[in-house]
Amino acid sequence: MAQISILGGGLTGRLMALLLARQGHCIQLFEQGGKDGNLSAAFVAAAMLAPMAEAVDATPLVLQLGYQSLDLWKQIMSMLPEKVFMQFSGSLIVWHAQDSDISHRFAQQLRRGNGGKEVWQNWNGDDIATNEPQLGGRFTSGFYLPTEGQLDNRQTLMALANAIEEVGVQCHWNTAVSLTDITADWLIDCRGFGAKADWNTGKSQLRGIRGEVARVYAPEITLNRPTRLLHPRYPLYIAPKENHIFVIGATQIESEDESPVSVRSGLELMSSLYAVTPAFGEARILELATNLRPTIDHHDPEIRVDTHKKILSINGLFRHGFMIAPAVCFAASRILNNALNNQAIEKDKETGIEPVIL
User: Fold this and answer.
1) CA 152 – CA 35 distance, rounded (Å)
2) How many of the other CB atoms lie within 10 Å of CB of 340?
3) Which of 131-140, 214-223, 266-275, 293-302 is predicted with the least confidence, judged by mean pLDDT?
4) pLDDT in tens, 37-81
5) Which of 169, 155, 135 is nearest to 42 (CA)?
6) Which end of the chain is more exposed for a tag (fewer CB within 10 A), N or C?
């Protein structure tokens, strides 16, 4: 049984703590934010599990990890002490008639990203009205992606925190530490963008991508699945959660500015939301939030292993955190156990992740 310290208690830190503790290791976790995960990138996320749709611009490795994680999330949910909102009702892509050219390009990208396969179903106006009555009459065409899903990000973070405490992980919430502050058999660095200074001493470079989301309460609106609007200026996603809460996002800005959401971004989010259905005009804005998504220059997640310093680092999940984190963390746990057992550290056979050895 190894003594392992995990720095960073966001999504990957909590998943790693749960997996390793269940394998019998002695784990302590340090998180500068609270138990609710309020300082993590995962706290400001829609938590959509959408590898089909992300095939438009994600890398092949990210898509592979996304598809693997769909089933892994179901396995992880069985480990949690409480029920978390999780839905596999697919997702819907819609557009207004004047933007049909965008839909043709999107279909080409979707087909190319999924190995030439037409992985979607073409829905007409009647199909949309039957399956999403709130959108009936608003759209005449859409793409339905049947195997995609979503989670409630904040429920998931809290349930993971409760689960790791139940299995004996020593959790140090609201505790900021550095790599040099802790001694253990191995350190696992899951600090995301917070690890930038340490990470950028290596070959690949880490940067933050600013993302902004809104949370609204709309008691008169019901959507049965995440819905994306194709738009020439600001493509939008709407992820419906429980109790008529909706998470809305669109922005992806090359900036490490962590200040509040700008007026322009807020207006664009709300305008595009209203464009999906004017019924959202009476929704109540609960929150406008922003955070930085840790991104590596090659846009793949990366696992680094420093066998001399006994440090394993996980980073670069970008905007795909919930979509790929399970597969990344299962791979990282296998790589770590190989290192603990003095076995060769090689490419992970299940996921295709090739660890970077320092």
Assistant:
1) 16
2) 15
3) 266-275
4) 999 999 999 999 999 999 888 999 999 999 999 999 999 999 999
5) 155
6) N
Beta bridge partners of 228: 93, 237
Determine whether 338 is exposed, middle or buried from the number of CB atoms within 10 Å of its CB (0-12, 13-18, 19+). Answer: middle
CA distance 312 to 73: 23
> CA-CA distance, 270 to 265, in Å (whole number)?
9
Domains within the chain, CATH numbers bracketed: 3-78+151-203+297-357 (3.50.50.60), 91-146+208-295 (3.30.9.10)
Parallel, antiparallel, or unpaired: how do β-strands 302-306 and 356-357 relate?
A: parallel
- Pairing between β-strand 186-189 and β-strand 311-315 as defined by DSSP bridges: parallel
CA dist 214 and 277 (Å) reads: 16
Mean pLDDT value of segment 10-21 = 98
Residue 83 in tokens: 């029920």
- Do 250 and 236 touch, CB atoms closer than 8 A? yes
Let me know the angle formed at the C-alpha of 323 by 160 and 334, rounded to the nearest 5 degrees: 70
